[in-house]
């Protein structure tokens, strides 16, 4: 029987060591509190299971007994509960309280269990020793307090995870799945130390806790790519031939420059002086350019507002006196680039937004992994930088910084520029140099992804008004 328990213990220790390596590897990519806490749990389980295996093969001693009790009875269940607090807590105060509780109990309990002498050391054998038999009063009471606190935390964590899952998203479902596996397993491990349980069951429970942590960390997390529904097609654009066309004019098509326009009255005087008797093309006189202008597409609309049915000239004094019943001749580009007041000035030339992205648009996506506790400082620095970019960089189309719900220590910055020249100018701005310098003490890792813009809507720069 001792050999069987030793084999089970060594297998569990190997699983715990592998799980610890996986947690540390993931911890390098994503710094989070629950990964750190569960790394301590699996490392403690590895030591405790190794001590159980050695004790069943060679016989227990005060050293192997202390390692088994500190690792399996104190640290493993305690840091399992602290990890669940870090996983489910949404406020910094709760996370900090969890860290304070874990560190305090670890220091106090570790010192007491290392210094306090072991009672009856001659009674050790190859069977798993029961803690109450060999501990004095202080270690025994300390372990009972820790186990009661752990049971309370595990139960509350299980209730919180289930409640959030009922009205939450995929991330809440992930947290619930992990908690449903870890909380009952942790309760069973605590029960094995509170009540006299045979050694094989204790080894199986400790190894099962390592497997539960492996499952909780290694399972795929949301969003699930295989379960995502196909994106719904975008709704068709509203028809443009109804009332919308009657409320606002269309943007004019680009056209070649026309020769200087002449006054229709001057053409009439020239005809009468020359004695022309042929038929006059009155249809040509009705064109936008006035009498004598070449027939062709009209220039840009002089009105920037809705069409009301009342014709108002763009410049009553620049093209001569208008003929009766004929529109006033208009220049190819309005003389004034000011908003139409309905009296003298014409509206600004209409400029359509870019429907297809220009090939020169340059984009970046930067993922910052922050140090624990530096989120507020980074957000304040990013907010000040965004305000400076908005005020001083007209060629920066998009500069956005936002967080990630499932990773509180990650920030993503989207950047779009009109071209690489605008990006170079952006990098030389003093506020960007300040952002690059001050974020170094707040950021753990940075990943930069260069974007290729396939489709975009880019609003043009505002035109400057001329007086």
CATH fold-level assignment of the domain at 2-218: Rhopdopsin 7-helix transmembrane proteins
Question: How far apart lie the N and C ends?
Answer: 99 Å
Number of helices: 14
CATH class of the domain at 2-218: Mainly Alpha
Give the SSE string. HHHHHHHHHHHEHEEHHE
Q: Per CATH, which architecture of the domain at 2-218?
A: Up-down Bundle
Helical proportion, percent range = 40-55%
- The CATH superfamily label of the domain at 2-218 reads Rhodopsin 7-helix transmembrane proteins
**Rg (C-alpha, Å):** 39 Å
Keywords: Membrane, Transmembrane, Transmembrane helix
Domain ABM: 365-436
Transmembrane segments: 6-25, 37-61, 67-89, 96-115, 142-163, 175-195
Pfam families: ABM (PF03992)
Describe what you observe in this structure:
This protein is α+β, with helices and mostly antiparallel strands and 467 residues long. Among the domains are: 2-218, Rhopdopsin 7-helix transmembrane proteins (Up-down Bundle); 362-451, Alpha-Beta Plaits (2-Layer Sandwich), CATH 3.30.70.100. The chain contains 14 helices and 4 strands. The chain has helices spanning 2-29, 33-58, 62-88, 92-115, 131-134, 137-166, 170-194, 199-218, 243-247, 264-274, 282-285, 375-392, 420-427, 430-438; strands at 362-370, 396-404, 407-417, 443-451. The protein has a 4-stranded antiparallel sheet with strand order 2-3-1-4. A hairpin with a 2-residue loop joins strand 2 and strand 3. Helix 3 packs parallel to helix 6, helix 6 (137-166) runs antiparallel to helix 7 (170-194) and helix 7 runs antiparallel to helix 8 (199-218). The longest helix has 30 residues, at 137-166. The model is unreliable at 222-229, 241-249, 261-266, 276-280, 282-325, 331-338, 340-355 and 463-467 (pLDDT under 50).
């Amino acid at each position: 029987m001792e050999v069987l328990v030793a084999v089970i213990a060594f297998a569990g220790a190997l699983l715990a060591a592998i799980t610890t390596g996986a947690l540390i590897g993931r911890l390098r990519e994503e710094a989070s509190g629950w990964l750190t806490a569960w790394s301590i749990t699996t490392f403690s389980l590895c030591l405790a299971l190794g001590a159980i295996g050695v004790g069943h093969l060679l016989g227990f001693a005060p050293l192997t007994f202390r390692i088994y009790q500190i690792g399996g009875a104190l640290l493993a269940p305690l840091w399992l509960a602290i990890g669940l607090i870090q996983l489910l807590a949404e406020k910094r105060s709760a996370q900090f309280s969890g860290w304070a509780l874990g560190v305090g109990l670890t220091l106090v309990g570790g010192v007491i269990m290392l210094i306090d002498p072991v009672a009856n050391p001659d009674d050790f054998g190859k069977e798993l020793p029961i803690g109450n038999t060999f501990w004095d009063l202080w270690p025994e009471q300390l372990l009972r307090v820790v186990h009661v606190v752990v049971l309370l935390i595990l139960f509350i964590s299980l209730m919180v995870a289930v409640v959030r899952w009922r009205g939450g998203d995929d991330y809440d479902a992930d947290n619930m799945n992990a908690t449903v596996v870890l909380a009952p397993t942790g309760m069973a491990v605590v029960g094995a130390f509170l009540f006299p349980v045979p050694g094989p069951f204790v080894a199986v429970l400790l190894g099962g806790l390592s497997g539960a942590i492996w499952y909780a960390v290694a399972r795929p997390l949301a969003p699930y790519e295989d379960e995502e529904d196909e994106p719904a097609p975008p709704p068709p654009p509203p028809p443009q031939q109804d009332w919308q066309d009657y409320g606002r004019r269309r943007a004019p098509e680009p056209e070649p420059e026309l020769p200087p326009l002449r006054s229709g009255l001057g053409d009439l005087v020239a005809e009468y002086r020359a004695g022309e008797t042929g038929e006059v093309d009155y249809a040509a006189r009705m064109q936008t350019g006035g009498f004598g202008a070449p027939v062709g597409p009209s220039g840009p609309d002089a009105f920037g507002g809705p069409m009301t049915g009342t014709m108002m000239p763009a410049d009553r004094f620049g093209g001569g006196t208008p003929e009766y019943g004929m529109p006033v001749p208009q220049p190819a580009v309005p003389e004034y680039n000011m908003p139409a007041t309905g009296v003298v000035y014409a509206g600004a030339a209409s400029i359509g937004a870019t429907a297809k992205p220009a090939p020169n648009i340059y984009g970046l996506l930067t993922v910052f992994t922050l140090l624990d506790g530096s989120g507020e400082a980074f957000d304040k620095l990013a907010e000040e930088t965004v305000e400076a970019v908005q005020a001083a960089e007209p060629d920066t189309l998009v500069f956005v910084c936002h967080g990630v719900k499932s990773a509180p220590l990650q920030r993503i910055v989207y950047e779009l520029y009109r071209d690489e020249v605008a990006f170079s100018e952006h990098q030389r701005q003093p506020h960007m140099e300040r952002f690059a310098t001050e974020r170094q003490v707040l950021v753990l890792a940075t990943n930069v992804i260069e974007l290729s813009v396939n489709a975009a809507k880019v609003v043009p720069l505002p035109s400057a008004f001329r007086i």
